[in-house]
Amino acid sequence: MTKYKKTIIIKLDKCLSKRQEFIAFSTRKGLLLMKMRKGISAVLAGVMALAALPVSAMSASAEGAYALGDVDMDGFITGHDAAMVTHALYVDNEALTAEQLRLADVNGDGVVNQSDADWIHENQVYALGQIDVFTMNACTIYEQSYTIARMGAGKARPLEKGVALLENGYYEDALPEVCYNLMDVNGDGVLDNEDVFVTVLDVALRGACEMDTIYFTEKRYDLGEDLVLAWVDADAAGERENVWDQIKAGVEHSIRYGVENA
Questions:
Q1: 221 and 193, same structural domain?
Q2: Rounded CA gap, 217 and 233, in Å?
Q3: Are 35 and 69 in the same domain?
Q4: How many CB atoms lie within 10 A of CB 107?
Q5: Structural domain harbouring 115
Q6: Quick one: residue 207, left, alpha or beta (phi over 0 = left, psi -120 to 50 = alpha)?
Q7: What is the pLDDT of residue 28?
Q8: In angstroms, rounded to a whole number, what is the distance separating the alpha carbons of residues 120 and 107?
Q9: In what helix (H) or strand (E) does residue 164 lie, and over which residues does it extend?
Q10: 156, 230: one domain
Q11: Confidence band, pLDDT 50/70/90 cuts, at residue 57
Q12: How far apart are CA 120 and CA 22, in angstroms?
């Protein structure tokens, strides 16, 4: 064999060797890619499975037993939940906690907006201010709401929050959390005089929600001031303001008298 032929054979051997190495490398790379693809597929499958979970299931795992829409977490979907959402949207953007925001996002689009408040309002069990379902009369509303607004929950006279009511004798039913929430008509989470006046006017003077003193309109809860003022013929702004002040003063006097003479 000549030197030229040996050189060709050696080069061919080297080429074959490199080709075999390349094939082996390609095979290993192919196996590696297959493994990577299988791994990626598994991850994607997991992500897709997570994204396909019902929002209610995810919320339930995060929030326990609270249903979507139960923003105040009192066990009921009520007008107060919708009021809390509108209060957060239009008055105080930081009013809701992260947990409450998750519960408020009833349509699961990741954004809490007016459509969520609308859904809650449409699916409410109790309307805002609807306290007659708990068989409380005007005297109970006067005393409980006024003393809470003045002194805070737990100091209401004669009985504190959640304890059986004393109403013209002994009353066996307890006042549930949802009842206090329904008295918070502006949804700010605090029972104050503004809530007291509107609740008292609604329950005591008109009958709970019969005349829609508290109602849902134009993306806000109307606290009933305009409807109350519509009872009197006072169209001028100054007169309307004076009438409203007189109404509030009269209600406060009546409540105070009832509490002091109970």
A1: yes
A2: 24
A3: no
A4: 14
A5: 56-122
A6: left
A7: 43
A8: 10
A9: strand 164-166
A10: yes
A11: very low
A12: 65
Residue 221 pairs with which residues in a beta bridge? 216
Residue of 59, 30, 63, 215 lying closest to 128 (CA atoms): 215
Both tokens of residue 32? 């590696």
User: How many whole angstroms separate alpha carbon 53 and alpha carbon 58?
Assistant: 7
Of the two residues 23 and 185, the one the predictor is more confident about is: 185
* 53 burial level (CB within 10 Å; 0-12, 13-18, 19+): exposed
Cβ atoms < 10 Å from Cβ of 151: 11
Block residue for tokens 């105080």: 92
Residue type, 51: A
Place of tokens 């805002």: 128
Q: How confident is the model at residue 101 (pLDDT cuts 50, 70, 90)?
A: very high
Query: DSSP characters for 114-156?
Result: HHHHHHHHHT-SB-TT--GGGT--HHHHHHHHHHHHHH-TT--
Same domain, 92 and 174: no
Q: What is the mean pLDDT of the chain?
A: 59
CB neighbour class for 79 (10 Å; exposed up to 12, middle 13-18, buried from 19) = buried
The DSSP symbol for 110 reads S
Residues 153 and 211 in one domain: yes
Confidence of residue 152 (pLDDT cuts 50, 70, 90): low
Instruction: Please give the tally of structural domains in the chain.
Output: 3
C-alpha to C-alpha distance for 113 and 87, rounded to whole angstroms: 11
| C-alpha span between 184 and 178 (Å, rounded) | 10
Give the closest residue to 222 by CA, choosing from 23, 86, 24.
Answer: 86
Q: Is there a domain that residue 30 lies in?
A: yes
- pTM of the model as a whole: 0.52
- Residue 205 DSSP one-character state: I
One domain, residues 155 and 207: yes
